[in-house]
């Protein structure tokens, strides 16, 4: 037994996956693998992959499965992932889910758990449309629920706060539709295999973290 843990954290855009994945990963000695963050990093670095993904992301559509699986394959071997990983925003298609199983199998590992954060659609639109992000350090704010001290300026680094291009209202609608169409089958896939644990995401951030902690199995649960 490796003592490594691999956990998928699912949920619609705006469910708070990123925040929760960071917390859970840190507490459990795992790394967080967010394919959205990896793509945004590639875009910021101006790599060919980033340039190719940009249009797709702006439209709220899904980047191809082979690109995504290639990114994950690379990151899994990083030293910070030696205790396992929490996947955020991945897998989003059944082929990605199967691909992940393959990547883990190559390393003699298996997926341990799938958690899904559930939030009503009206709440998601409110959350995403008010979301702002620091252009410099990436810190997240919300114009109503977690504003910066000075409007448009990051409390942490003084950077400019902007709206992510894919948080524009028309893109939010598309992202939710894509989630329903393409990602719902992933839930079914997992329900039929490792099992899925639902987490109520329509509560304060700390309460969601607590709910996730309660459901997480310890790394060596099997003894
Ligand atoms: P996120 O930050 O997870 O909401 O991702 C932002 C955007 O990146 C998505 O709307 C997609 O265009 C792209 N993306 C992120 N992760 C994936 C994935 N696993 N599969 C396909 N596209 C993805």
Give a verbal description of the structure.
The chain is α/β, with parallel strands linked by helices. The protein has one domain: P-loop containing nucleotide triphosphate hydrolases (Rossmann fold), CATH 3.40.50. The protein contains eight helices and eight strands. The chain has helices spanning 17-28, 35-44, 48-58, 65-76, 94-106, 121-129, 169-191, 205-215, and strands at residues 5-10, 31-34, 84-88, 113-118, 131-134, 140-142, 161-162, 197-200. The protein has a five-stranded parallel beta sheet with strand order 2-3-1-4-8, sandwiched between helices. Strand 5 (131-134) and strand 6 (140-142) form a beta hairpin. The protein is globular. The mean pLDDT is 92. Residues 13, 35-36, 39, 56-57, 60-63, 68, 89-90, 92, 96, 166, 175 line the site of adenosine monophosphate.
SSE inventory with pairings:
Blueprint: E1 5-10, H1 17-28, E2 31-34, H2 35-44, H3 48-58, H4 65-76, E3 84-88, H5 94-106, E4 113-118, H6 121-129, E5 131-134, E6 140-142, E7 161-162, H7 169-191, E8 197-200, H8 205-215
Parallel strand pairs: 1-3, 1-4, 2-3, 4-8
Antiparallel strand pairs: 5-6, 5-7
Helix pairs in contact: 1-8, 2-3, 4-5, 6-7
Bound molecules: adenosine monophosphate.
Adenosine monophosphate (AMP) binds at residues 13, 35-36, 39, 56-57, 60-63, 68, 89-90, 92, 96, 166, 175.
């Amino acid at each position: 037994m490796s003592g490594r843990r691999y956990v998928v954290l699912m949920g619609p855009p705006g469910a708070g996956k990123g925040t929760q994945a960071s917390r859970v990963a840190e507490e459990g000695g795992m790394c967080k693998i967010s394919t959205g963050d990896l793509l945004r990093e590639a875009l910021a670095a101006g790599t060919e992959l980033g340039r190719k993904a940009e249009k797709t992301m702006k439209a709220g559509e899904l980047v191809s499965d082979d690109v995504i699986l290639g990114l994950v394959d690379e990151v899994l071997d990083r030293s910070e992932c030696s205790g396992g990983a929490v996947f955020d925003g991945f897998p989003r298609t059944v082929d990605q889910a199967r691909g992940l199983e393959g990547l883990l199998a190559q390393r003699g590992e298996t997926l341990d758990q799938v958690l899904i954060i559930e939030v009503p659609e009206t709440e998601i639109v409110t959350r995403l449309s008010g979301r702002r992000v620091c252009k410099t350090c990436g810190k997240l704010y919300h114009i109503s629920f977690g504003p910066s001290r000075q409007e448009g300026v990051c409390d942490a680094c003084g950077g400019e706060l902007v709206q992510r291009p894919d948080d524009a209202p028309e893109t939010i609608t598309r992202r939710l539709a894509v989630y329903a169409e393409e990602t719902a089958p992933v839930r079914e896939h997992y329900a039929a295999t490792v099992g899925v644990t639902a987490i109520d995401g329509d509560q304060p951030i700390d309460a969601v973290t607590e709910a996730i902690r309660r459901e997480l199995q310890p790394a060596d649960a099997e003894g």
